Automatic annotation (TrEMBL), chain B:
Compartments reported by the entry: Cell membrane
Protein export membrane protein SecD/SecF C-terminal domain: residues covered: 119-304
Designated name of the protein: Protein-export membrane protein SecF
Matches recorded under HAMAP family: SecF_B (MF_01464_B)
UniProt xrefs under PANTHER family: PROTEIN TRANSLOCASE SUBUNIT SECF (PTHR30081:SF8), PROTEIN-EXPORT MEMBRANE PROTEIN SEC (PTHR30081)
Major site of localization recorded for this protein: membrane
Length: 584, 333
C-alpha cells in the first residue's frame, strides 16, 4: 500500500527529531571527548564540555557571598559600574587561585560570588575590599619566569609564593630621594624579584602605598619592581578610549586611552612625568596598578602638565576600551559589603540532589501510573514522549553547562520535576481532543488529524503563557528564581518540540495500527467506551444531540414523524440511537 | 477506569451536565469569603512568618548527626550568645538546623566550633550561613516587579489571542484569587515564607493561566459556533466538556509536585524543595478550582449583558420555550 500523506508527514517529523537529537548529542560527545584529552584552560571551543552537567553550589556544596556595592560618595551604583566591579572581583578571586568560581550581578547593586569549598576570612576580606588603582614608577622589569622556581616537574603542580630568606637586608642602605630612586631596591627585594613566580604571586592586593612593590602584570607575563605610589587612582576624573590625534588635531588612526586628572592628580602627575621623562628605560615607565597587579606600564614621552594624558601603543578598539574602563573603575568610589554568606556542606548538597532525583523518579512513576489508568495503552505514547523530552532536556542542559556555564541548582531540579507534569499536560490536552473527535463519530485517523489542529492551538496558547511567565521571571528575578525560571523556559520549549515532532507523529502512526485503529478495549481510544456510536471503518453518524431537553424534544420530533419519514431515515442509516440507547 | 471516560463522554455530549456557570453567585460568594479570610486571618495572627532570608540572621546546619536531640543545639547557642533566640529544626534524616539572630563573625566561629563539639561531628560538617536582612527584601522586590509586569503582559497576550479583553479580565481575576488564597494558606497555617516559597508562588502564575487558557479555548470554540444554546449555556457546556481534561491535567501536574513535597517534607526536611512544592501544591489545586468556578462564570457574566448577545439569547430562549410548549402540547395530546 502506498504511504498516505499523514504517514509521510509523521516519518518526516520523526526524522527531524532524530536529526536534532543526533546533532546535539554528536556535538556534545565530540566536545567531551576532545575536552577529556586536552588540558584544562586550553581555551579551545570544546573546553569544559562534559556529559555531566555542572551543579550549582546548593547541590555540590560551597560558599555563596552576596555583596552589595556601595557608592562611598553617596548616590547609587550604575549598571556599568556594577559590571566593572564584577570584573574586578573576578580578577581578585582568580588571583587567589580559586578556580570554578562564578560571579554574577543580582538586582541593581548586588554581586553574587559562588566559590566551591569554604573560603577563609582573608579571602573574603580581600573580595570585600574597595578596588584600588595607583600609579607607581617602574624600577626594574623583565619577562616573568613562571616555571623556573624549584626543580623538576612537581614544582609547577602546586607552586607556592616565594619568600626570601629573612637574613637578607630589608631596609635601604641609603635613604631614597624620590620614588624612582633605585636605592629602594634592598637585597631582600632583589632576591624576591629574582625568584618571583607570577604563577604563584604574593597577596599584593593591600600592599602599602609608601613602600616599593614586587608584582606581575595581570597576564603574569612580566614582573616588576615598582616604587612607592605617586598618584592615586581616585584622582582620575575620567578615562575614555578613542582614536589618537597628533598635534595638528588630525587622527593618526591609532587607538588611544585618554586620561583626565583632577586638581591634585594633575599636580602629582606633572611631578612624576617631569622626572620620568629624563630617565632611562625602564625607569621612564610608570605602572598603573590595580589591586596590586600591573594593568599597563606606559613609557613617558613628555611631561604632562595639564592633567590630560594620552596612552598609545598597540591598542585595538577593544583593548583601549577595556583599559579605559579599568582606569575609570579605579576612580570609582565603590566598596562592597557582604550581605549574606551562605555555606552549604558537600554532604547536604549531595543529600539534596539525591532527594530531588528520587522525588523526580517518584513523580514520574505516579504520572505513568495515572496515565495508564486514564489512557490505557496511550500511556506508552506519554511515557515515550516524556522520555524524549527528558533526553532533549538533558542534552540541552549539558550543552548549556559547557557553553554558557549554566549550573543546575536545587531550584532548577525542582523546575525540571514540575515540568514532568506540565509536559504531560500537553499530551492530555491532545488525547482528550482526539477523544472528543471520536465522540463526534470520526474514525481514529481523521480524529487524530482534526484533534491535532485544535489541540496544537491550545497547546501553543497555554505554552506561550508559561513561556511568558518563565521569561519575565528569568529577566527580572534573581539567584534561585532565575535557575528555576530557566528550567521552566527550557522545558516549555522542549514540550512544544516533543509534541510536534514526536507525540503527534507517533499518534499518526499508531492510528493506523489495528490495536488502536479499531479501538481495542485497552487502547484508551475505544469509541464505545467513549460514548460514540461507531459502526466500523468510515461509517460516521451525526453528532449526538446534547442537553436533556434537546433529547426530549428530539425524541418527540421523532415520534411525530410520519411513518414514511421514519422508514426513510432508518434506511439511510443517518439517524442513530439516542445516547441512552433508546430508539424512541 | 472506563467509568471515568464514560463520565467524560457524558459531560461531552451533555447527557450529564453540571450547572456551574449558572450558579455563579454561589461561587462569587465563596471566593469573596475565602479571600477575606485569606487577608484577615494572617493579619489577626500578626502577619506572615518570614524566613531568615527576609528577617536577616545566622543559620547553622549540622549534618551527619548521630544524636538528634535538639536541646543540645539550643543549650550550645545560648551558652555562647545568651540572647541569640535559637530556633532549631531537623533537616533530613541526620541534620540539625539552627537559626539565630544575626551574629558577629567571632560569635559565628565560636558557635560553629561549639556545635561541632556538642554533636561530635567534624568541623566541616557544620555549615554557617549569614544573611543580611536586605537580601530577602531585594528578592521580594524583584519578585513583585516580575509579578506586575507578567500580569500586564499576560493580560495583553490573552486579550490578543482570544480577541476579547473580557477573557483576560476573567483569567486575571481567577489568577489573583489563586495568589491571594495561596498566600492566605501560608499566613493562616503559619508556614514560613522563604525565597523558595516565593518561587513556587510565582510559578502558580504560569500554571493557573495555563489551565485557564485550555478551558477558555474550548469556551471560545463553543460560543463561536452557531447553536440553539444561550451564551451562558454554551460556556457551561464548554466547562463541562473540559472538566475531565481539567481534572486529568491537574492531577498529572500535581503528582510530581506531591512527590517533591513528600520527599522535601519527610526526607529532606525544611528547605528549598519543600518550600517550592508546597506553594505550588496549594496553587495548582486552587488554580484548577478557580478556572472552573471563577474564570468561566465571570466571563459569561461579563459577556451576557452585551446587547448583541442579549438579543441572540432572548431569541434562543424564545425558541426553546416554543419547542418546550410544543413538546408539552404533544404530551397532552
Amino acid at each position: 500500500m502506498a504511504r498516505s500523506t499523514p504517514v509521510k508527514k509523521a516519518l518526516r517529523s520523526l526524522t527531524w527529531l532524530v536529526v536534532l537529537m543526533a546533532v546535539l548529542a554528536g556535538l556534545n560527545t565530540a566536545a567531551s571527548v576532545l575536552a577529556g584529552n586536552a588540558k584544562d584552560d586550553s581555551g579551545e571551543w570544546y573546553e569544559g564540555a562534559s556529559w555531566v552537567p555542572e551543579l550549582a553550589l546548593d547541590l555540590q556544596g560551597g560558599t555563596q557571598l552576596t555583596l552589595a556595592a556601595q557608592n562611598t560618595e553617596g548616590g547609587s551604583v550604575t549598571r556599568e559600574q556594577l559590571n566593572q566591579a564584577v570584573n574586578i572581583i573576578r580578577q581578585r578571586i582568580n588571583a587567589t587561585g580559586v578556580s570554578e568560581s562564578q560571579i554574577n550581578t543580582q538586582g541593581t547593586n548586588n554581586i553574587v560570588v559562588s566559590i566551591p569549598g569554604k573560603p577563609d576570612k582573608q579571602t573574603i576580606d580581600r573580595i570585600e575590599a574597595a578596588a584600588k588603582l595607583t600609579f607607581r614608577p617602574v624600577l626594574y622589569t623583565e619577562a616573568a619566569t613562571n616555571t623556573s622556581v624549584g626543580d623538576g616537574a612537581d614544582s609547577t603542580a602546586s607552586p607556592t609564593p616565594y619568600s626570601p630568606p629573612a637574613s637578607l637586608q630589608a631596609t635601604p642602605s641609603a635613604k631614597p630621594t624620590n620614588a624612582s630612586d633605585l636605592n629602594w631596591v634592598t637585597p631582600k627585594l632583589q632576591d624576591l624579584y629574582t625568584n618571583y613566580n607570577c604563577a604563584a604571586p604574593d597577596d599584593v592586593t593591600t600592599a602599602p602605598d609608601d613602600e616599593p612593590l614586587v608584582t606581575c602584570d595581570q597576564d603574569g607575563t612580566a614582573k616588576y619592581i615598582l616604587g612607592p605610589v605617586e598618584v592615586s587612582g581616585a584622582n582620575i576624573s575620567n578615562a575614555t578610549s578613542g582614536l589618537a590625534t597628533d598635534s595638528q588635531g588630525t587622527s593618526t588612526g591609532q587607538w588611544a586611552v585618554n586620561l583626565t586628572f583632577d586638581g591634585t592628580g594633575t599636580k602629582d602627575f606633572r611631578t612624576v612625568t617631569n622626572r620620568l621623562v629624563s630617565l632611562q628605560q625602564p625607569q621612564n615607565q610608570f605602572a598603573i596598578v590595580l589591586d596590586g597587579s600591573v594593568i599597563t606600564a606606559p613609557t613617558t614621552n613628555s611631561a604632562i602638565t595639564n592633567g590630560k594624558a594620552q596612552i598609545t601603543g598597540s591598542f585595538t578598539a577593544d583593548s583601549a576600551k577595556t583599559l579605559a574602563d579599568q582606569l575609570k573603575y579605579g576612580a570609582l568610589p565603590i566598596n562592597f559589603q557582604v550581605q549574606s554568606n551562605e555555606n552549604i556542606s558537600a554532604t547536604l548538597g549531595t543529600a539534596q540532589l539525591v532527594g530531588g532525583l528520587v522525588a523526580g523518579l517518584i513523580g514520574l512513576i505516579l504520572v505513568i501510573i495515572y496515565s495508564l489508568i486514564q489512557y490505557r495503552a496511550l500511556a506508552f505514547v506519554t511515557v515515550l514522549s516524556l522520555g524524549v523530552a527528558a533526553a532533549l532536556t538533558y542534552l540541552v542542559i549539558a550543552i548549556m553547562s559547557w557553553r554558557v556555564d549554566y549550573r543546575l541548582s536545587l531550584a532548577g531540579v525542582a523546575g525540571l520535576i514540575v515540568a514532568i507534569g506540565i509536559t504531560a499536560d500537553s499530551f492530555i490536552v491532545y488525547f482528550e481532543r482526539i477523544r472528543d473527535e471520536l465522540r463526534d463519530g470520526r474514525g481514529l485517523e481523521s480524529a487524530v488529524e482534526s484533534g491535532w489542529k485544535r489541540a496544537l492551538r491550545t497547546i501553543l496558547a497555554s505554552d506561550s503563557i508559561n513561556f511568558l511567565a518563565a521569561i519575565v521571571l528569568y529577566v527580572l528575578a534573581v539567584s534561585d528564581v532565575k535557575g528555576f525560571a530557566f528550567t521552566l523556559l527550557l522545558t516549555t520549549l522542549i514540550d512544544v518540540v516533543v509534541v510536534v515532532l514526536f507525540t503527534h507523529p507517533m499518534m499518526q502512526l499508531i492510528a493506523r495500527s489495528r490495536f488502536f485503529g479499531e479501538g481495542h478495549r485497552f487502547s484508551g481510544l475505544d469509541p464505545a467506551a467513549l460514548g460514540a456510536v461507531y459502526r466500523g471503518r468510515a461509517q460516521f453518524r451525526a453528532p449526538v444531540v446534547d442537553g436533556k431537553r434537546q433529547q426530549r424534544s428530539a425524541g418527540e420530533a421523532q415520534r411525530r414523524q410520519t411513518i414514511a419519514e421514519r422508514k426513510a431515515q432508518q434506511a439511510s442509516g443517518e439517524n442513530g440511537t439516542t445516547p441512552d440507547g433508546k430508539d424512541d | 477506569m472506563a467509568s471515568f471516560s464514560q463520565f467524560g463522554s457524558d459531560l461531552y455530549t451533555g447527557k450529564r451536565s453540571y450547572d456551574i456557570v449558572g450558579r455563579r453567585k454561589t461561587w462569587y460568594l465563596i471566593a469573596v469569603i475565602a479571600i477575606v479570610v485569606s487577608l484577615v486571618v494572617p493579619w489577626l495572627r500578626g502577619g506572615y512568618q518570614l524566613g531568615i532570608e527576609f528577617t536577616g540572621g545566622s543559620e547553622f546546619t549540622i549534618s551527619n548527626v548521630q544524636d538528634l536531640d535538639q536541646s543540645i543545639a539550643t543549650d550550645t547557642v545560648e551558652r555562647i550568645v545568651p540572647d541569640g533566640i535559637p530556633r532549631v529544626s531537623q533537616v533530613g534524616q541526620d541534620g540539625i538546623r539552627v537559626q539565630t539572630e544575626q551574629l558577629t563573625d567571632r560569635e559565628t566561629t565560636e558557635v560553629q566550633d561549639a556545635l561541632a563539639e556538642a554533636y561530635d561531628v567534624r568541623e566541616d560538617q557544620v555549615a554557617a550561613t549569614y544573611i543580611g536582612a536586605t537580601w530577602g527584601a531585594d528578592v521580594l522586590a524583584q519578585a513583585i516587579r516580575g509579578l506586575v509586569i507578567f500580569l500586564a503582559l499576560a493580560a495583553v497576550v490573552m486579550a490578543l489571542y482570544f480577541r476579547t479583553w473580557k477573557m483576560s479580565v476573567s483569567a486575571m481575576a481567577a489568577l489573583l484569587h489563586d495568589l491571594l488564597i495561596t498566600a492566605g494558606v501560608y499566613g493562616i497555617v503559619g508556614l514560613e515564607v522563604t525565597p523558595a516559597a516565593v518561587i513556587g508562588f510565582l510559578t502558580i502564575l504560569g500554571y493557573s493561566l495555563y489551565d485557564t487558557v485550555v478551558v477558555f479555548d474550548k469556551v471560545r470554540e463553543n460560543t463561536a459556533q452557531e447553536s440553539h444554546r444561550t451564551f451562558t449555556q454554551s460556556v457551561n457546556l464548554a466547562v463541562n466538556q473540559t472538566l475531565v481534561r481539567s481534572i486529568n491535567t491537574s492531577v498529572v501536574a500535581l503528582l510530581p509536585v506531591a512527590a517533591i513535597l513528600f520527599i522535601g517534607s519527610y526526607v529532606l526536611g525544611a528547605g528549598t524543595l519543600r518550600d517550592i512544592s508546597l506553594a505550588l501544591f496549594i496553587g495548582i489545586i486552587v488554580g484548577t478550582y478557580s478556572t472552573i468556578f471563577i474564570a468561566s462564570p465571570m466571563y459569561a457574566h461579563l459577556r451576557e449583558n452585551e446587547p448583541k448577545i442579549k438579543q441572540a439569547d432572548a431569541k434562543k430562549a424564545q425558541a426553546a420555550e416554543k419547542r418546550q410548549r410544543e413538546v408539552d402540547a404533544a404530551a397532552e395530546a
